[in-house]
TrEMBL record:
Keyword Metal-binding recorded: yes
Source domain of life: Bacteria
Record's keyword terms, sorted: Metal-binding, Oxidoreductase, Zinc
The keyword Phosphoprotein is annotated on this UniProt entry: no
Pfam families: ADH_N (PF08240), ADH_zinc_N (PF00107)
GO molecular function, one term: oxidoreductase activity
Family in the record: Belongs to the zinc-containing alcohol dehydrogenase family.
First and last residue of the signal peptide: none
Protein name: alcohol dehydrogenase (NADP(+))
Domain Enoyl reductase (ER): from-to ranges: 11-341
Cofactor (UniProt): Zn(2+)
EC class: oxidoreductase
């Protein structure tokens, strides 16, 4: 076993504490990655807050990170020591089901192995995430980090980025498309950047009028205040695609009514139960969809697209020792738009 240092959820509190962690010895197709930067996802906050302290399973969050290869297994041919890489929220899958063969490992029929809080397919150990100085991962689930992308600002692309890339790409968004992004947070700001770079006429829907300037800075062409009934009525049936990135439970009816005939509302923020009025789908033959992360081909394509368009997340970089501060501020939505931890203080 290999020993590294990371931030683990304390069983008795909602705090993360610095502690030694055990990583497996490298298997033939493994990489050892020195983690340099790890994004702080809202799901990390949820995982720590909802964990069962009696389970006995360690919880180390972090599933969007960049770093450098420090060692390779004997069967690895795609990477060499010193290569810059990125790792997302999936680190293994069965490789045999229809979804895996389609390059959609995120939908693996036996469930993909998640970067943290999951069970390793080979030895049954608990996967420990990227809030650590080292991670060991199958080479097939690591991605070359394109030259020119800031590794800190690129880290959130591996979760927040691919989550919104998946529906935009599969729904064929491009020049002539009319896209609205509901919610301007970690997911939403990247959805705006992607939609604009894809050539779409892009608007932001937000309950916060003070985000209008940010929306324009990100490239949005329009801004709709969701709490203004007149503005929402004026935007009815206007958008071919609405990407709903709002993380809190909410009524999706008002957003469906903004979708144009034969258009799609893709909900990627709040993934809990929703109530849908059939009439909101019926009038205009509208579609309700969702997406979760992305498979390996889509993730690689997203990174290349980002390199081509010099596109990364808007981040606030913090030393990893301030991770609990980042969690506290994330609870208050006090970030524009993604915290990233600098792991270099873990020595």
């Amino acid at each position: 076993m290999r020993t590294t240092i990371g931030w683990q959820a304390d069983r008795a509190t909602a705090q993360l504490r610095r502690t030694p962690l055990q990583r497996r010895d490298l298997r033939p197709d493994d990489l050892a990655v020195r983690v340099d930067y790890c994004g702080v996802c809202h799901s990390d906050l949820h995982a720590v807050g909802s964990r069962d302290p009696e389970s006995g399973r360690p919880l180390v969050p972090g599933h969007e990170f960049t770093g450098v290869v420090t060692e390779t297994g004997p069967a690895v041919t795609r990477f060499s020591v010193g290569d810059a890489v990125a790792v997302g929220n999936i680190v293994d899958s069965c490789g045999e089901c229809l979804m895996c063969h389609a390059g959609q490992e995120n939908f693996c029929h036996t469930s993909p192995t998640l970067t943290y809080g999951d069970v390793d397919r080979h030895d049954g150990s608990t996967t420990l995430g990227g809030y650590s100085r080292e991670y060991v991962v199958r080479d097939g689930f690591a991605y070359p980090l394109p030259a020119g992308l800031d590794p800190a600002a690129a880290a959130p692309l591996l979760c927040a980025g691919v989550t919104v890339w998946e529906p935009l790409h599969t729904l064929g968004v491009g020049p002539g498309s009319r896209v609205a992004v509901a919610g301007l947070g970690g997911l939403g700001h990247l959805a705006v950047k992607f939609a604009v770079a894809l050539g779409a006429d892009t608007s932001v829907i937000s309950r916060s009028p003070d985000k209008a300037d940010d929306a324009r800075r990100l490239g949005a062409h329009g801004f709709v205040v969701s709490t203004d009934p007149d503005r929402m009525t004026a935007a009815r049936d206007r958008f071919d695609v609405v990407i709903d990135t709002i993380s809190a439970p909410h009524d999706i009816g008002p957003y469906l009514r903004l979708v144009a005939m034969d258009g799609t509302l893709s909900q990627v923020g709040h993934l809990g139960p929703v109530t849908v009025e059939t009439i909101d789908l019926l009038v205009g033959r509208k579609k309700l969809s969702s997406a979760g992360s992305g498979g390996r081909p889509a993730t690689a394509a997203m990174l290349e697209f980002c390199a081509e368009h010099s596109l990364t997340a808007d981040i606030e970089l913090l030393p990893s020792a301030r991770v609990n501060e980042a969690f506290d501020r994330l609870r208050r939505n006090d970030v524009r738009y993604r915290f990233v931890l600098d792991m270099s203080d873990l020595t």
